[in-house]
Write a structure and sequence with these properties.
356 residues, seven-stranded parallel sheet, Rossmann fold, alpha/beta, six-stranded parallel sheet, 17% strand, 39% helix, 2 domains
């Protein structure tokens, strides 16, 4: 039986890491051999999500660019039929090592962000990236908009390019109560969970919230996450007069905590790959309001589960928050729609095709 390896930076709880561990767990339960190679630290919180029988190798290297000698040593001892890398830099290093050792592993790359927003557009850089992408057996995109963006920048054979939506689990058996479990009376809980970095554009979210709170002062935004901007965002919310309407919470893998009593989820990113936060939200029956950024929101949200705003207009976004909170959403329909379109079965079947 073929040996399969998933390569990831760490198991700390990021979107790519969640997908990696979910894929490993589903493959193992299907009886398909799978192992994980972690570059930095294998002791992150997502390790607990994996079956204890799944082998996790730990290189213990601080940075991917410093991992070359460790990768050479690892692949001298271990041979695999299929390797899927969840990071471009790691993918290039792994492919280089496999070629260096004259191995015959098929190395595929899962793209984690919109290419035009992350890769340098310089002539030399484009040649470098195009050359590197041709090395991979398959290039896996999280949505069709990502694939279209990639193909408009690099003339790579479409046979290499595969779209596999991230999965969301069915939570129909635990439809969460929408009444607030907080100490405050009659609050309207809205939520965001993610890295507190520039890409997520949380300042715009706070500006929009200011307009919403002026109409409905019972709205309270819960922000779950950590990052370099956490302190400045906290200060900004105070300056905006939102200290009673914004609650910062640390990062958590406990989605029940995030979505319990929530009435609406918000996403205001400058760009995405495929926002797992929206998938998590609709899997709990929570409607979403999102900026229609590149890429993913337009392929997740529809008339059943939320709304898209096409421009960064804080007044429009804030007013839409209020209107959506006044809407009587069918939470069970939101969950069923999510599970039908983004099921774990479809996700697993697509990756099994890659591993044949």
């Amino acid at each position: 039986m073929k040996r399969n390896l998933l390569v990831i930076n760490g198991l700390q709880g990021g979107g790519a890491e969640k997908v990696c561990t979910k894929l490993a767990d589903l493959l193992y339960k299907k009886g398909i051999p799978v192992e994980i190679l972690v570059i930095k630290n294998a002791d992150g919180p997502l390790r607990e999500n994996l079956d204890k029988n799944i082998t996790v190798h730990n290189l213990g290297v601080k940075r991917a660019r410093n991992s070359l000698s460790s990768l050479i040593s690892f692949f001298k001892r271990n041979r695999y039929d299929n390797i899927i890398c969840f990071n471009f830099q790691l993918g290039i290093l792994v492919k280089f090592v496999i070629v260096l050792l004259r191995g015959n592993s098929k190395v595929s790359l899962r793209v984690i962000n919109t290419i035009s927003m992350t890769n340098s557009s310089g002539f030399i850089s484009k040649l470098y990236y195009e050359y590197c992408y041709r090395w991979f057996e398959f290039i896996i995109f999280q949505c069709y908009e990502m694939k279209k963006d990639f193909e408009s920048n690099y003339p790579i054979s479409s046979n290499k390019c595969k779209v596999i939506y991230n999965p969301c689990a069915s939570n129909l058996n635990k439809l969460l109560p929408k009444k607030s479990s907080c100490d405050r009376i009659s609050i309207e809980k809205v939520v965001f969970a993610g890295r507190l970095e520039s890409q997520k554009n949380i300042m715009f979210m706070l500006e929009s919230l200011r307009f919403a709170v002026d109409i409905n002062p019972n709205i309270v935004l819960f922000i779950y996450g950590d990052g370099s901007l956490k302190s400045s965002l906290s200060n900004y919310s105070f300056l905006m007069g939102l200290d009673d309407n914004v609650i910062f919470k640390p990062f958590t893998n406990d989605l029940d905590e995030v979505f319990e009593s929530a009435k609406l989820s918000l996403l205001t990113s400058k760009f995405e790959g495929f926002p797992n936060f929206l998938l998590d939200s609709i899997s709990y029956g929570i409607p979403c309001l999102s900026i229609n950024c590149k890429s993913g929101p337009s392929e997740i949200l529809n008339e059943v589960n939320g709304c898209l705003i096409n421009k960064y207009d804080a007044s429009e976004f804030g007013n839409k928050i209020v209107r959506m909170l006044e809407t009587n959403w069918n939470h069970e329909s939101i969950m069923r729609d999510a599970f039908d379109r983004f099921s774990e079965d479809k996700f697993l079947k697509s990756y099994i095709e890659i591993l044949k």
